[in-house]
Amino acid sequence: MAAAEPSKKKQRVGASEGPSEGGSLCVYMGSEACFSEKAALAYFSRRASLSGSMEGVGTYDALFKAVEEGQAQYGIVPIENSYSGSLHNVYDLLLAHPLHIVGEIGMVEEYCLVAGKGVKELSEVKRVCGHPQIMDACSIFLNTLSNGDEVAERVAAMNSASACADLKKELENGSADALATAAVAPREAAVLHGLEVLAPGIANDSNAETRYLIIGRHKERLVELDATAWHADTPYYKTSVVLALSNQQGSIFKVVSQFALRNVNIVKVETRPAATGGSQVYSTSPRHWDYLFYIDFESSKSPATNKALMASLSEFSMYCRELGTYRAHINSLEVQHRRGASSRYAASSTTENCPGVPLDRVDVREYGHRETGPGRPDGGV
Predict the structure, then answer these.
(1) How many C-beta atoms surround the C-beta of residue 225 within 10 A?
(2) 3-class SS at 142?
């Protein structure tokens, strides 16, 4: 199956019809109607001050290069799925390029099995194409599709929408395999390419969420955070850092203890082989089985605490770089979880932080930064 080229058609957001500064407003990896484009439209459509076009590119390398060289103001990349895990090559590119994480959005995505209009039964499907990670996230369903005594063949595609484009081309060319082929893709891609949904909602976890990062050349302009009071418009922020640690006793403990001492919550830790850091991190070749640590944590409401924490992380690591501090995405499941937890969070009543949750159902005492509040000390530095 030949790989489809990424769509050059540009989607626009915002009211302005003039060109945006730096070419496109945002680039994504993939073709029109892919999941990344849907995430980009969802993120930027809520930001009235930004307008411009969305454009697909063929690789993540091309995406990072386009943003770095000013061909686009922003890029959007998937970083992890709550079921299938992290996209490691994206972590490597975050380190390799002098860009900043300026935002994030989580998307609960419906994976559908789609095929040509002549296919009526699942038993007719002998081959499935799609993005490998998305197909892994639908493995339970896909394993029920058989090709004789074997499970239906899986064919990797650049992205979910390009799998539909490839299948459409095969159908138009009268390929003998086309009517035995299906794709895993969003409904929008099926409609765009004249395909039909054979089976909706085929993911192993129907509530699985993909988290996307928005990257840019400049740091996100942060609101000033008041460490002494709660405010309904105070958002919840994350900070992402990458560290190289010496392989010796206590090195991880020394780093983790810096967060605990300041009552700062670590959200996620991801490791990558030290060799992915290259000469940017190491002056000599790193040893096998040494690692880089990517850490996401809830930014403190106190600027002094954040400054002291970063200084301590630099002290106890061989390399330390802040990848970005940005407004965090909180979905409705997170809201429910935080309602059930102890009241540790300061105010955030914006529907943007709690998409899908009516404003009058969000307790503004429970969301946002966690440094201050009833029963909690300021945290100090």
Answers:
(1) 19
(2) helix
The first and second tokens of residue 66, run together, are 């386009």
Read off the tokens for 83: 């079921």
Tokens of 272: 């990558």
Question: What radius of gyration do the chain's Cα atoms show?
Answer: 23
Q: What is the pLDDT of residues 290-306, one digit of tens each?
A: 899 999 999 998 999 99
DSSP string, 193-226: TT-EEEES---SSTT-EEEEEEEESS---PPPP-
**Bridge partners, residue 151, by sequence:** 146
Residue 23 zone, left/alpha/beta (φ > 0; ψ -120 to 50; rest)? left
CA-to-CA dists, residue 294 to 36, 94, 270, 320, angstroms = 23, 10, 5, 10
CB 323 within 8 A of CB 93: no
How much is the pLDDT for 147?
A: 73
In this prediction, residue 149 has a pLDDT band, given cuts at 50, 70 and 90, of confident
Q: What angle in degrees, to the nearest 10, is found between the helix axes of 88-96 and 60-68?
A: 30
Return d(Cα 136, Cα 127) in angstroms, integer: 15
Residue/partner pairs of 91-94 with CB below 8 Å, 24 or more apart: 91/270, 91/272, 91/276, 91/294, 92/272, 92/276, 93/60, 93/61, 93/64, 94/213, 94/215, 94/242, 94/294, 94/323
Which pLDDT band holds residue 364 (cuts at 50, 70, 90)? very low
Q: Residue 299 gets which letter from DSSP?
A: P
Residue 1 vs residues 21, 58, 134, 154, 197: alpha-carbon distances, Å? 38, 17, 18, 11, 20
Say if residues 154 and 139 touch (Cβ distance below 8 Å). no
Q: Is the pTM above the cut of 0.85? A: no
**Residue 225's closest CA among 371, 328, 359?**
371
**Two structure tokens written together for 198:** 């054979």
Distance between CA atoms of 25 and 19, rounded to whole angstroms?
A: 9
The dihedrals phi and psi of 247, each to the nearest 5 degrees, come to -85, 80
How far is residue 66's CA from residue 106's CA, in Å, rounded to a whole number? Answer: 23
Give phi and psi for 127, each to the nearest 5: -145, 140
55's enclosing H/E stretch is: strand 52-57
Q: Which two tokens stand for residue 255?
A: 């780093």
Residue pair 268/249 in contact (Cβ under 8 Å)? The answer is: no
Tokens of 149: 């005594």
